[in-house]
Amino acid sequence: MSRITRDDVAHVATLARLELDPERIETFTSQLAAILEHAEDVEALDLAGVPPTSHPYELVNVLRPDEVGATLPNEEALAAAPQAESGRFRVPTILGEAP
Amino acid sequence: MSATDAGSADTAVRIAAAVRAGERSALDVLEGHLARIDSAEADVHAFNLVTIDSARAAARAIDERVAAGEDPGPLAGVPIALKDNLCTRGVATTCSSRILEGWVPPYDATVVERVWASGAVPVGKTNLDEFAMGSSTENSAFGVTRNPHDLTKVAGGSSGGSAAAVAAGFSPIALGSDTGGSIRQPAALCGVVGVKPTYGLVSRYGLIAFASSLDQVGPFATTVADAALLLEAIAGHDPADATSIPQEAPRLLERLDEGVQGLRVGIVSELMGDGIHPDVLARVREAAEALAAAGATVEEVSVPAVTYGLSAYYLIAPAEASSNLARFDGVRYGLRVDGATTQEMMVNTRTAGFGDEVKRRIMLGTYALSAGYYDAFYGQAQKVRTLICRDLDAAYERFDVLLSPTSPTTAFDVGAIHDPLTMYLNDICTIPTNLAGHPAASVPFGTGADGLPVGVQVLAPALGEIPMFRAAAVLEAAAPAKGAHP
Amino acid sequence: MTDSAPADARIPTDSLGNPITVPDSDDITVVEAPDGSRWELVCGLEVHAELATATKMFSGAPNNFGDEPNTNVDPVTLGLPGTLPVVNQHAVELAIRFGCAVGGPQSVRRSVFSRKNYFYPDMPKNFQISQYDQPIVVDGSLELPSGHVVGIERAHLEEDTGKSTHVGGAGRITGADHSLVDYNRAGVPLLEIVSRPHVRSTDQARQYVSELRSILVACGISDGKMEEGSLRVDANVSVRREGSAEIRTRCEIKNLNSLRSLGRAIEHEATRQAALHAAGEKVTQETRHWDEAQGVTGTMRSKEEADDYRYFPEPDLVPVDPSPEWIAEVAAALPVLPAARRARLAAATGEARTAESVVVIVDRGQDDQALLALAAASGAAARPDAADGSEVDASVVEAATAAPTGAKARVLVHIAQNLAAAGGADLAPERLAELVLLEVGGELTATQAKQVLAELVADPTATAAGVAKAKGFEAMDTGALEAAVDAVIAGNPTEWEQFRAGDPKVRGKLTGFFIGQVMKATKGQADGKAATALLTQRAADG
To answer: Which of B41, B161, B300, B409 could be bridged to B126 by S-S, CB 3.0 to 4.6 A?
Structure first.
């Protein structure tokens, strides 16, 4: 695996909605590279045929009945909103439709 | 310089029994603890918030119920500290992050509901590494928590505030959360008992997620019995958590005194070598001897895949965290730093609201999940997880419990570790159980040459809490000097 | 998660790694590029259906359209820190129903929820919980009324997003001053149904959505209201040279909120792509937005992360693996679906499944009425529950098949054409049967029957015989009909000679003339068929 580059770090920051100044990008690049280097032992393992474990305790079909439960009153739903208007959460202009 | 509570042997078991019997007032008990908070909290900084008024009201209510002939429950009148990543209705919950500063949840976490229902008296919200990401409670937006045994040392982390609160006698018990060792490591460093239960035994509903497939809420206490008492109160199925195991809480207290006669104990070879301080290794060997002396059979066992634990963990946990922490965007709650567009506002908010370690892990996790890297990183790490489970399962065919150090060292100096990877190495012994979803407990067992507490870790298979607690109780009884009360 | 992707990337594959196939059809939309080259349509459709549950996909907040903003929300809906999702059992059951309906029990699979990560203010967690590489339904198909079969690649469960309204800038997203977000819709259960690229014409696209809607509504899976956004359609459009077998780059067209815009948008997009291909330019794989007012598709603001959703298995949820017993139970309770109902009605009446009357009657849900009427007309014992509109069973179909051929044609005509005009879609089958039997027996003409039918609809207590009598539509007895026919023959000797000569073409023409005269003479009371038979008999008699 090639080392993580500054461009990778800048791209990932964009994906994660973080802004990093050039100096921070530099620091993060070397720190992430060190961590990923440590992970090379895992990367190098031949694990073809080994199933992934995404849940430590295997359960299946955990379902809830389709019954209406308690809701938050509108004021409570908006209580923590940085900005609200007409019963809705207010945000600045949105750029572009949802993907 | 020390702030440990040397005078008190006030355990939760004793307090609850006395309060339920009407022999002690919950309010008196509380005031004793508040007095200790008052005298030492400024040095320790275990809490983000002490809820004095609501605690007094709760204690009075307990006393009234007892006076009215009611039983307030198994934790009647026991002060408890809650890690500040557990949602508390009407009480600010911050995760020690600027991004949640001032947020007041409109609901209680299931464990908080259960603590209230058991008659406990919550005294405050404890400090943590921001979003539980860290091993020293230095990564808090609201200041460092210090080790009550030596205020120049860290308390460990991420539940450093809860561990310190119990070690300092601010409350006999506390709740923490453990994703890669965040209960056990600070318990070891602060000389208290800390337990990470089987994944799914305790509800995660209302625990602000770090890494969902690894997080588990668990108890801190000064004694193994208190830890068992608290775990019994919070464990058991919760329909609001789809990963909650559909069975009742185990009855632990009544099994504590069964001893370890015939119990098969394995010492994990891979966790007894490089990187572990000789003092710590010596205490673990002594602990093994103590178990053997009590009738257990003790052998070394190899669990090869645990050596990959750290690498797998530092791919899986940040990946899940990067997704879990996406919701902090300034739209619905918490911090907002304005911008010309919603997109800019989100970037400004997250950039200002998250600390460096959180950003680092979000970056690492985003990278591990991103196009082209999923198979090499996240996918591969989930397979390694399978290997660790297999190797541990194989070990548990021959052993009932396993033994290892909890932390490679005793508490280190505040500010000593700057390099993230070096900090991550603190979790090398605790991580494998999180990956496997197994329970593990850290029990104080003597001190290092520096006089600071050492913790020994007892590991057990899924739902193996009973043998784990039995072994822990024997270790507690055999411990050379009470770590929590030097 | 890309484990299932085949090693040979040269073969285009679908989202589950299966090779893409495009079927031929006798109905293919072909567009012409400016250079005169001809390009045929290859299209797949993604339909998002909001499920008819009481609560949301992952919490107990109500699933209800049109309520005050941010009232159908709870901590889970708002994605508050610490909250966890739990899967709605009924949503799973509705997905199983759909699987059984389009692919049978074997198309319902063990499924796993994943997180689709992207930032957008209408998404409370900034990820959407959706099934990704292990959807609950795979490999179904849907037969259109035309007989064309569209494969269904998959259907998966996911949660809907909230809704933004834009303040200033005429309510559009561009130029707005700020936006307001309502999370009532956030978390509403969706079934995303992905077809294979088997839609070859704009008409098939409309038929597919319409047929899918019928199935969803018939099975109680969704209310299917496109106008409320319960059914939302995206189209994956590509074109290829007429007659070729290429698979070319596709574009996804969003915001197709009516059957009309669906057809228009697909045709427009195909034409756009054909022009690019013909000019040697590249079609970029992208998501495009249909602008109904302008009648064009436009590129959506390209987002850097648009194709990097960082999917991974949702750690807060466990797999959904419906047991064979559960699936069988759901399958057994399924209603008969439109395609099968068309087949059943067609078989019982001797019509083609694609016959317009058959398609129309099933589309309107009146096939039970038709079959029950025919069963009654066959003389089979009336079913006690027949009048309450209960489902027909095999015995009804059998009886209907035994009804007189003439009755079958008349029932289809009445239901497909006359009843709707009279506003009598719910006319009791027995009353319709009585009317049709009078017609078949020659006691009412087609014209008279139509008038009687209107009366039956208007007056629920009226009987066909009673109305016929009241209107003076008494059946002519054979003697009176013979007299009328003979009088017309006598009055038109020239025509009669030509008729007798026997040239089939001439005779065919003149039959119309003579019957018209007989009808005129009898004021429409004569039975056309009986009169025709008499004419033929007289001619043979010489």
So the answer is: B161
Torsion of CA A73, A74, A77, A81, to 10 degrees: -150
- In degrees, rounded to 5, the angle at the alpha carbon of residue C294 between the alpha carbons of residues C289 and C295 is 70
Q: Residue-wise over C497-508: b if at least 16 C-beta within 10 A, else e? A: ebbbeeeeeebe
Whether B219 has a pLDDT exceeding 90, the answer reads: yes
CB B36 within 8 A of CB B81: no
Closest residue by Cα to residue C181 from B142, A98, B471:
A98
Q: Give the CA count within 13 Å in the CB-facing half-sphere of C38.
A: 6
Quick: pLDDT tens for B344-374: 999 999 999 999 999 999 999 999 999 888 9
Interface test with B, best of A1, A6, A35 (most B CBs within 10 A): A35
Q: Name, in order, each residue with C-beta under 8 angstroms of B1's C-beta and a sequence gap of 6 or more.
A: B43, B150, B151, B152
Burial of B324 (0-12, 13-18, 19+ CB in 10 A): buried
What does the alpha-carbon distance between residue B157 and residue B209 come to, in Å, rounded to a whole number? 16
Question: Cβ neighbours of residue B265 under 8 Å, at least 6 residues apart?
Answer: B288, B291, B292, B296, B297, B298, B299, B399, B400, B401, B402, B403, B471
CA distance linking residue B133 with residue B178, whole number of Å? 10
Query: Which positions of B are annotated as active-site residues?
Result: 83, 158, 182
Is-contact C184 A88, C-beta < 8 A?
no
- Nearest-Cα residue of chain B relative to residue C181: B331
Burial class (CB in 10 A: 0-12, 13-18, 19+), C6: exposed
Q: Give yes or no for a contact between C304 and C267, defined as CB atoms under 8 angstroms apart.
A: no
For each successive 10 residues of chain C (542 residues), what is the average pLDDT? 41 83 93 96 97 98 96 98 98 98 97 96 98 96 94 98 90 84 98 97 96 95 93 96 93 90 96 96 91 85 66 97 98 93 93 91 90 86 49 84 90 89 82 89 83 89 86 76 89 88 81 86 76 85 73
Structure ipTM = 0.96
- DSSP conformational letter for A48: T
φ, ψ (nearest 5 deg) of residue C487: -65, -40
Question: The tokens of B347 are what?
Answer: 């970037």
Which residues 84-103 of B have a C-beta within 8 angstroms of A? 103
pLDDT band for position B4 (cuts 50, 70, 90): low
Residue A89 to residue B104, Cβ atoms within 8 A:
no
Are B93 and B80 in contact, with CB atoms under 8 Å apart? no
Interface probe with A: pick from C180, C291, C305, most Cβ of A within 10 Å: C180
Is residue C270 classed exposed, middle or buried when 0-12, 13-18 and 19+ CB atoms within 10 A define those classes? buried
Number of helices (H), then strands (E), belonging to chain B: the values are: 15, 13
Q: How far apart are CA B355 and CA B476, in angstroms?
A: 38
Under 8 Å between Cβ of C20 and C12? yes
Say whether C71 and A61 touch across the interface (CB within 8 A): no
Q: What is the pLDDT of residues A19-74, one digit of tens each?
A: 999 999 999 999 999 999 988 888 889 999 999 998 888 899 999 999 999 999 99
Give chain C positions within 8 Å (CB) of A71.
Answer: 61-62, 71-74
Q: Is C78 in Cβ contact with A15 (below 8 Å)?
A: no
The pLDDT of residue B265: 98
Q: State the smallest CA–CA distance between residue A92 and chain C in angstroms.
A: 5
Q: CB–CB of C115 and B323 under 8 A?
A: yes
Of C83, C125, C311, the CB nearest to B326: C125
Question: What confidence score (pLDDT) does residue B484 get?
Answer: 40
Nearest CA among C107, C84, C82, C85 for reference residue C96: C107
Predicted pLDDT at B404: 98
* Chain C residue closest in CA terms to B378: C312
